[in-house]
Predict the 3D structure of the following.
Amino acid sequence: MEIISNPTQVEIKKAAQALRDGHLVAFPTETVYGLGADATNSKAVSRIYSVKGRPKDHPLIVHISSMQQIYKWAVDIPEYAEKLANEFWPGPMTLILKRSELAKDFITGRQNNVGLRVPAQSVALALLGEFEKMGGSGIAAPSANRFGAVSPTSADAVQEELGKYLDTKDFVIDGGPAMVGIESTIIDCTSEIPRILRPGAITADMVKASIKIVPSVSTLNSSIRVSGMLPTHYAPNAKVKITGNTNSGEGFIALSNIPTPDGAVRLASPNNLDEYAKTLYTAFRTADFHGLTTISVIPPNGDGIALAIRDRLIKASG
Ligand code: TXA
Ligand code: MG
């Protein structure tokens, strides 16, 4: 694996060519780092599954450079979905739409729909732009972690997760820390009413304000396969505890106005909710790095991204 630590246009072209040649490229997005492959190359895509250790029936999000590309990948797109795309792309939102011929079973997990996203990250957009200039149609990318583990929010975290599984011709592009820090909001747009399958930085209120339709929010026993909906996910090695008191020697995560309990190891003190999201996964990794066995977390109150943070904390705690 080659690390691109200074992603100039020349380096980005090299990475785009590697994707066209069927290799894997881990790249930064504003949410978390993704492990990318040419979304039309079944062999390349199958390597994503083996590198991640992920079950084959879990669909992948296809990343595209702009809203115009959705017409390649999706059909029968409802008006409200076009509106959402116009308003929130590039951005931390994935739309699930009825697939076109281009979205094969190896991308969709044999479902009739496909997940699409335009990331708001300059390196990612440059990579997508170069890749499309070379004749590519989209980059399939799950979060660049082993299955069930914590999503990486830095290039170092990608190497830690996947370094030993990547080949010499694969790349990891360092684009600095992920600005949002938790995965995109996933919105199922295959029915009349949009349905939020995974909460994220684009909130239900933002969706409602944009399209004047109140989205439904799905429950755990959704029939659509979203791997984030497995009982344990986004989980560090340390046990995540979101209730009860904090014991000495345990890791501790809470907003900065909450003091550290006696003997606890402070892992993050975010000043606000955005900072909370941005630092959460790094805090999990720090706990594992120091071999802590338990992380005690005080979840943030409220709606908006607080909801997405609580969702990840619940998943991480199993
Ligand atoms: O922020 C993100 O979404 C990041 C960055 C890299 O873009 N990607 C990401 O991908 O989180 P992943 O694969 O780790 O999580 C995407 C989730 C998976 O649980 C997958 O099952 C679900 O989205 N998903 C993808 N396509 C889907 C589809 N067509 N229908 C239902 N769920 C889908
Ligand atoms: Mg993931």
